[in-house]
Amino acid sequence: MTSQIERLKVLSAGILSLILMVGIARFAYTPLLPLMQQQAGLGVSEAGWLAAINYIGYLSGAIWASLISDLVLKDRLYRLGLVVAVVSTFVMGITDNFWLWSLSRFFAGLSSAAGLLAGSGLIMNWLIRHEHRSELGIHFAGIGLGIALCAFLVEIMSSHLVWSEQWIFLTLIGALILIPAWRWLPRPEKTTVTRTGKEMVDRPPGKTFLRLFMLAYFCAGVGYVVSATFIVAIVEQLPGLEGNGSWAFLILGLAAAPACMFWDMVARKVGNFNALIAAFTLQIVGILISVVEANLYVVLLGSALFGGTFIGIVSLVLSMAGRYYPTRAKMMGKMTISYGVAQILAPAVTGLLAEYSGNYSDGLYMAAIIMAFGTLLMFRLKAIDQNEMKNSGTGSL
Length: 397
Description:
Blueprint (H helix, E strand, L loop, with lengths): L1 H23 L4 H11 L4 H24 L3 H23 L4 H32 L7 H21 L5 H21 L23 H31 L7 H26 L1 H21 L3 H29 L5 H28 L3 H32 L5
């Protein structure tokens, strides 16, 4: 019983950290974007650049994470990230200066990398060390819950508070979340054995496999970031759907919250790569559906499909990376660099396309095509994995 309570507290710390560092610090910008455009004069191109700067911060954090193997240092970065998340959210509400917003978005990106990589690596290490199931689905539910929380709060607050007051309110919520997220995650142990004395051994994949895996994850990053950044603004532009953007984002978050656990179960039954291929395919449908039919229910279905797949892809990929490197989050960082590069390029390109054409359709088509290429790469990775299993006589991760 004590072990299960401890596991619950550790996983809760991870969930709360992602609600703060990813949901609030990073994704509150999405439902607040239309309001900032209306009330603070934020332009479409500037909005795209702020999103891109956010992902530059995220990529910078991913690079640092890929270079750091010391779990003690990762723990310090995780805790620093919690504080930075609160401060960067606060800055968004006390200024309308584009350069200060840019600085805030950069540090929010660093914070989200600390939550996604340092936090995930620490929790995966703790789970393996204490011989619990080495899956991050429950942990990553925090991203969906954070998205849903922000969407719900923005929808409720919009009739009472202006954009800046909403950022301040979200800062207060984040400050409260910080406390258990800090206290409930134990400091990492330095030994490389589990609690029963079993050695934790890193099993790095081959170079070709890693390169193709990073490229496929880059494609997933493009597919994810276009909809995640602009979905509220996309819905607001559709004829007859004005005022429903926040609801689409709420549905996205609610679908994402249980999705990680669902995809963990799918992966147990059909294997990681079959699960990833299915998630990639469904995400393409979720991206395109709002372009094909400007109907509220169809758009909400697309939001649910997108929310239910993008976070499953992240969870499956980073769980696999954590099992390749149980003693350090090295591969998690490398994978996230490729994901982060996509998140820098795609929002800026989408913003420019939208400014030129007057809508986001071209950006969505671009994301769907790149995701289709990523799906083909997943089939290739599956073949390589099966061949390596056959040659080594070991099971797949």
